[in-house]
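Annotators were shown the component list below and the corresponding predicted structure, then asked to write short factual statements about the assembly.
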Amino acid sequence: MHIPKEKITSILATDCGSTTTKAILIEKVDGVFRLVKRGEAPTTVEAPIEDVTQGVLNAITELEELVHRKILDNGEIIKPRKGDKGVDIYISTSSAGGGLQMMVAGVVKSMTGESAQRAALGAGAIVMDVIATNDGRLPHEEIERIRHLRPDMILLAGGIDGGTTEHVAKLAELIAAADPKPRLGISYQLPIVYAGNNMAAGLVEERLGKKTALDITDNLRPTLETENLMPARHKIQALFLHHVMQQAPGYNKLMKMTDVDIMPTPGAVGDIMQVIAKQKGMQVVGADIGGATTDVFSVFQGIYNKTVSANYGMSYSISNVFVDAGLDNIMRWVPFTMDERDLRNRIKNKMIRPTTIPYLLKELIVEQAVAREALRLSFDQHKALAVGLKGVQKERTIGDALTQEDSGESLVNLMRLNMLIGSGGVLSHAPRRQQTAMMLMDSFLPEGITQLTVDSIFMMPQLGVLAKVHPEAALQVFEKDCLIYLGTCIAPIGIAKEGKPCVNVKLKKQNGHEVDIDVPFGQIHVMGLPVGETAEITVTPMRGFDMGEGYGAPVRGTVHGGTTGVIIDTRGRRPFELPKDNAKRVEKLLEWIKAMDLYPKYPKFE
Amino acid sequence: MANAYTPGLKVSESTVISKERRLPLIGDVLVNKGSRVKHSDVVAKTELPGNVELVNVVNKLSIDPKEIKDFMLLKEGDRVKKGESIAQSSSFFGMFTTPCPAPCDGTIESISCATGQVVLRQNPTPVEVLSFIDGIVDEIIPKEGVVVKTIGTYIQGIFGVGGETVGELVMVASSPSTVLEEGMINDTQAGKIIVGGALITAAAIKKAQACKVKGIIAGGIDDETLKNFLGYDLGVAITGNENKGITLVVTEGFGNINMAGKTFELLKNNNGKKTSINGATQIRAGVIRPEIIIPKENLKESDISTPPEANLLMDVGCVVRIIRVPHFGSIAEVTALPTEPHEIETGAKVRVVEVKIEHTGEKFTLPRANVELIEK
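Structure shown to annotators:
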């Protein structure tokens, strides 16, 4: 950076997504950093341009026009700011070019394999496959797989420090035999990070040192009971910048334009999520749904986990969501019928023309239905990976022995979840904020009392990288301009027949106004509570329902308002089910749409 | 905003076409800069390392990994035939021997004293890269390939299936709205690339395969037809390696959509000419779209000197294609580009473009994201 931090008053940040490049301008106004405007343009990694910086310049040009000031001069960013021209620093994140695609290898799939997967995911990578000595595949099948996938990088782990070296050496031999080639460019060696048993480092060096760009770092599982992911994560991010990004179209130019290193988008979003969780002392789940991938983040008991669902997204991967979720699961959220042939064609057309947006209300409803399924599937994958360490020997009491709890249970506990954060185009740009709240509720099925928020204009990636350079600026913008409070969801666990008593809610607002309401099973009821206001609440579940303190036990607390307010969701949990009868399902969907005031044309869909 | 950046598919009557022809691995380039090449000429070749077999010698011979080299009959780099012993142990003063035979022909790549495994690599597979288009070698990429240039008609499709193929172009459809039916295809079209209008039917594809047609170009295809043709539901649009004996290039999208008038006319004007098509599509990072290339006959070296130009700025008067419902597939002229966002039916406020639809004259305002530029 060419300018001291305290002199920075104007920051330009871009995020080069797989579909769109977003540029934001942040400036210091009356001593506080605020978002000024946002511009966007299609990402240019496609012929005939094939240069990511063109999309960046186009997004900045749009920003210039919106703020009526000059940032560019002859295709170059004016730095530092001089009066109303230029900016002090320029930073960027990127997931264009397919992001970072990795393979990981570990000795035991559910132990070092899983730790390696967490390390790669935490660094912002998409994990294409996990190779392990017990993955059920024959060596030649694994070799073929490595050769076929052509990852950007491989993370090799395995064994605890000082343990047996034979299995790690076997894995290294397997990789050496596959002689993998990188995805982009054929003239450079594939980067491999070794983060396994320290005693096997020499053996790995012997086998892979000459064939690949091998980098050795600390073991990510030094003992069975500990995971040490940060050294491997840092190594991955450094290699990503210096090996992989150099090969992507235009990145060399982009790297020269930025004042600090470009960060992979999921890594940047993960960083800012961790800052929020720590600062607020909360259990947080966040989801960023993009065009090609959906990233899910969680912080429970101070443990951060991140997963990337590589083929669930709203444009490039929309068809894959359709294939994996199935027609019925998508259409269950849609209150009208559609010809299957027509729906299939529409989804494929979105896939091949990923930058288009729905113009008709029915199209918007279908896209939001797909988003619900993409988020649900991605969250399922996250829950499966965000688990405690497996293979750990626990000291057990007699009570533990009776409960027969295994190591490796999921850390995600929806009843303990305090805040759900949504991000990504379909959530951030939904025409009404209620739609965002409803998509989050339907996909994640929060339990108990959960605050719902959304990234206002999808700027968390840029704030994540800004936090590295100027944490105060990042937090100020995050609090004031980024996070939109949608409201609080109150959802008891349990099921009953429709209309049967479910929950009583007593709400006392700051102005002394009180509400006392019984909400029967199968409904959504919204109570207005504006953004910035809080209220004291007592929720008493009826018999057979639980708000986290046991069946029938009341819970008390403070709830936060939002654009939607306090949402009482008595549609049932564990399981949540929509009516099987089609007419009844449509009737209920329309009822909930009305309760949430989701769409402008209610209910004339036919 | 006076204009807007709007990428579109390239549809050009005459343009300089540049094709990079690269090997998957380092190898040899077989042509020189300035050489004239035919589509079937090999421009570069290499050998793809063979598959490997891991032979667990220590298990077979019941020995310790550290001792493996004492029992090996061959060393690293030695060639071996299937069944030949690569290692052997003996007991009772050499009276009994246990051999470890090679499971395939190949070369001993490595012998590991840590794991006791021997890596046996099978013989390499030769790989050749063809020129794919008739043209002139404009650039040599040392050890990797070449850039072949030509001048001719160039049409980018939106989606395709199947790899590179070359054949004579045959117009089968009479208009851009013709649906390509089974009855329009016959044995005389074997080895050729046929052009339909608005839709390829499932029956037409089957008939074309049976008649050994090399490729089909049409405006649209139903997703259901594609699923049946591929035998699976396509989740991520990465295609090109399907082994179906036929290449499909779709120019407009999924459904029954008229081929753009300009595309249809260009193809019609080139009826009977040698055409190179590639269905490979990758709708992800480093997007690849299917291509139709019809090189000019009697190419001169001076023809390829003009660099290709991309005009991606949309302005009033530009011709655009509407790429989402309503009016999906219609061609329209831009009449205004308002600066301020407008509210559309969904309730979203977006930047819009005002257009006049070509055939009906109807004026319509739609999101800028839902149009793409068509080169004049």
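Statements collected:
1. The CA atoms of residues 216 and 261 of chain B lie 17 Å apart.
2. The first strand of chain B starts at residue 4 and ends at 5.
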